[in-house]
């Protein structure tokens, strides 16, 4: 597999990198293990200081890093700038809250278990392998790195092969911030060598964000090695619109929910279930707004949608749409890739999707929205739950009973009401069903890669 930066705007290979040799990979893993042995003993407050410095360095580098992200994957420069700002905020969140998250939990049942004192202390596992995707090249890696380093773990990053420069910047960032050498390293290796790294005895655990097949592979290896793993896989989030909501607001957010990151996000809303009483009105608003988006150069401030990140990704989206149309679906807007260079695909709205179409039960990773009329909230929830994925979900309503029903019955790891599904360092992120297991972010995500060690201390006089 070629490790290179390739422009999604022109298809031109801009910069290529050599893959690590077996000897270089061995050296990096050994250095990670040595670093883990000492880093785990650092003070919580010292880690917080380094995280804070990393935030300052990244903030100062924002313009350069944002342009790099846009160059590598084609997201708009505005979107890349927002991504960098989110990473800065995450670093500061863990710098401010990490020491508190890492306090021992004092037990209240010492007498009941015959002890003088009981408590739970959380300790790092050691070297954690992160296998990350290209779509949010800095944020996906940062939402692993910030909590993992806060916890006292050491990270080795196997990033997607089309974002090598962003991956190498991550290593540089933590080194420049003052973290000890080798606490965070980037591994420029192909996906075929992930198994070797995960099976290595010096690697304690892994986290993967990516496709369902990649998740299955990593989960199988981790299971065989009895190593902890967190999986954040695909999503085909439902976006449910009920009559009591503000349709203008719902349609505006729906466009953002479907086209964020050029439509290449696991938590993009992809299936829109709209109550029949407001279906026509919502579809008109939504279609007009989707059709009005500007597709073009992602470095241009006037551009809303840049190219898709890879040629194969654009071809996949096109194939999903062509399959649906051939089987009777209707394209309301978009649906045809433009002529010329680059991997562009227009914002597209499709109605009449049925179960025999590929996009019904799979994830379309591009700016394509499927819209259905439904007779009730229950029908919408039932249709949403038929899908094998269960990552995020959205409901738009002012009715409290509908909110309660949605939160109780929707099969997803996250339920957002009157807002767009997103990730925040303050709250847990993750899914169920084929969207994976485990959580990222907040104290919950940080503790995924920590040993909750029970401590029982008896009375020596007894």
From TrEMBL:
Keyword NADP attributed: yes
Keyword field: NADP, Oxidoreductase, Tricarboxylic acid cycle
Family: Belongs to the aldehyde dehydrogenase family.
Taxonomy of the source species: Bacteria, Bacillati, Actinomycetota, Actinomycetes, Mycobacteriales
Superkingdom of the source species: Bacteria
CDD domains linked to this entry: ALDH_SSADH1_GabD1
One BP term from GO: tricarboxylic acid cycle
Pfam families to which the protein is assigned, alphabetical: Aldedh
GO molecular function, one term: succinate-semialdehyde dehydrogenase (NAD+) activity
Residue span(s) of domain Aldehyde dehydrogenase: 2-455
InterPro entries for this protein: Ald_DH/histidinol_DH, Ald_DH_C, Ald_DH_N, Aldehyde_DH_dom, ALDH_GabD1-like, GABD/Sad-like
The protein's name in its UniProt record: NADP-dependent succinic semialdehyde dehydrogenase
């Amino acid at each position: 597999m070629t490790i290179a930066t390739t422009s999604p705007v022109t298809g031109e290979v801009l910069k290529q990198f050599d893959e690590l040799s077996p000897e270089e990979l061995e050296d990096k893993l050994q250095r990670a293990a040595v670093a883990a042995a000492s880093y785990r003993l650092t003070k919580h407050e010292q880690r917080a200081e380094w995280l804070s410095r990393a935030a300052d360095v990244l903030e100062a580098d924002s313009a350069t890093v944002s342009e790099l992200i846009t160059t590598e994957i084609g997201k708009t420069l505005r979107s890349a700038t927002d991504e960098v700002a989110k990473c800065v905020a995450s670093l500061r969140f863990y710098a401010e809250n990490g020491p508190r998250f890492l306090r021992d939990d004092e037990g209240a049942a010492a007498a009941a278990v015959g002890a003088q004192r009981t408590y739970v202390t959380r300790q790092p596992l050691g070297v954690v392998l992160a296998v990350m995707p290209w779509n949010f090249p800095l944020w996906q890696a940062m939402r692993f790195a910030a909590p993992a380093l806060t916890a006292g773990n050491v990270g080795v990053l196997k990033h997607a092969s089309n974002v090598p420069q962003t991956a190498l910047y991550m290593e540089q960032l933590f080194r420049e911030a003052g973290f000890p050498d080798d606490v965070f390293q980037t591994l420029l290796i192909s996906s075929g060598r992930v198994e070797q790294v995960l099976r290595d005895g010096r690697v304690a655990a892994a986290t993967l964000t990516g496709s369902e097949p990649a998740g299955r592979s990593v989960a199988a290896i981790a299971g065989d090695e009895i190593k902890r793993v967190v999986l954040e896989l695909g999503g085909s989030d439902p976006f449910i619109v009920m009559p009591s909501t503000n349709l203008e607001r719902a349609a505006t957010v729906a466009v953002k929910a479907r086209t964020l990151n050029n439509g290449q996000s696991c938590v993009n809303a992809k299936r829109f279930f709209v109550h029949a009483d407001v279906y026509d009105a919502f579809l008109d608003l939504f279609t007009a707004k989707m059709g009005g988006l500007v597709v073009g150069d992602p470095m241009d401030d006037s551009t809303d949608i840049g190219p898709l990140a890879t040629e194969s990704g654009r071809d996949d989206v096109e194939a999903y749409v062509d399959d649906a149309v051939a089987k009777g679906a209707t394209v309301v807007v978009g649906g045809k890739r433009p002529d010329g260079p680059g991997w562009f695909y227009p914002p597209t709205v499709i109605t009449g999707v049925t179960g025999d179409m590929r996009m019904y039960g799979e994830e379309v990773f591009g700016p394509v929205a499927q819209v259905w009329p439904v007779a009730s909230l229950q029908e919408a929830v039932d249709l949403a739950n038929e899908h094998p994925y269960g990552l995020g979900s959205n409901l738009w309503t002012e009715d409290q009973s509908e909110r309660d029903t949605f939160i109780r019955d929707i099969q997803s790891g996250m339920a957002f009401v009157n807002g767009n599904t997103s990730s925040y360092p303050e709250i847990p992120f993750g899914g169920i069903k084929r969207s994976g297991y485990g959580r990222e972010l907040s104290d919950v995500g940080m503790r995924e890669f920590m040993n909750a060690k029970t401590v029982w201390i008896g009375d020596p006089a007894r």
